[in-house]
Design brief:
With 237 residues, the protein is of the alpha/beta class. 31% of the residues lie in helices and 18% in strands. It contains six helices and ten strands; from the N terminus they run βαβββαβαβββαββαα.
């Protein structure tokens, strides 16, 4: 799989992709991450990538012609390098007004050949770029300075789902992974007792059926307490 991130600030990504699971996935050739500087496609001697909005207003808007030129080049280059004639390329824009990014989203992206992430910035992007996108994606109901941090988060979430990236079966019981999106059950390790707090006896019993039952109950209770909205969404479907 290849992930291409189109950004005004590629320097921001130095570090986050060089550790832990993403680093190992790159070393195993499970994923290639390419950072593309949008200014390489800028206009004129000053490499202009934005301009003032029609109709007035505060802030600058990323130019549709610059973004489109970059997208065409990125998609064309990947197509030339791929031996697969039916490659699955998907273009998303990070945006506070986009669809919520969920575990199911990450799972679907992990099945792609090429994921292209455009990091939104400034006041926004020229609306006409939407004609060349597949989705607008948001990581939450809040506003950030730019799309670089969301791009890092989504990349991490997708890469860890690639086959071989982490231990087989490790993601199956995680929060949001099941058909009914319960939060993950609590975990314990040594010491058995810490300042009067004991590990639940069922986890020490060796009875895997009872342990599985306890974990399911704990997941349900945790979800009811912390994220009751998840259960409501499931009921309404």
């Amino acid at each position: 799989m290849k992930i291409t991130i189109l950004t005004l600030f590629p320097e921001m990504f130095a570090g986050p992709f060089d550790y832990s699971i993403i680093k190992r996935a790159k070393e195993k050739n499970l994923v290639t991450i390419d950072l593309v500087n949008l200014r390489d496609f800028g206009i004129g001697p000053h490499k202009m990538v934005d301009d003032t909005p029609y109709g007035g207003g505060v802030g600058m808007v990323l130019k549709v012609d610059v973004l489109h030129k970059a997208l065409v080049q990125i998609k064309t280059d990947f197509s030339k390098q791929s031996n697969n004639k039916k490659i699955k390329q998907h273009v998303i824009l990070t945006s506070a007004s986009g669809k919520p990014f969920k575990q199911t989203t990450a799972k679907s992206y992990s099945q792609l050949d090429h994921l292209i992430i455009i990091c939104g910035h400034y006041e926004g992007v020229d609306q006409r770029i939407m004609h060349y996108l597949d989705e607008e994606i948001s990581i939450g109901d809040f506003v950030l300075t730019g799309g670089e941090l969301p791009a890092m988060i989504m990349t991490d979430s997708v890469v860890r789902l690639l086959e071989g990236a982490i231990t087989e079966g490790a993601v199956e019981d995680e929060s949001f992974s099941a058909e009914i999106p319960l939060l993950e059950y609590p975990h314990y390790t040594k010491p058995r007792n810490y300042e009067g707090q004991d590990v639940p006896e069922v986890l020490l019993s060796g009875n895997h059926q009872e342990i599985a039952k306890w974990r399911q109950e704990q997941s349900l209770e945790k979800t009811k307490h912390i994220r009751p909205d998840l259960l409501k969404e499931t009921t309404e479907k």
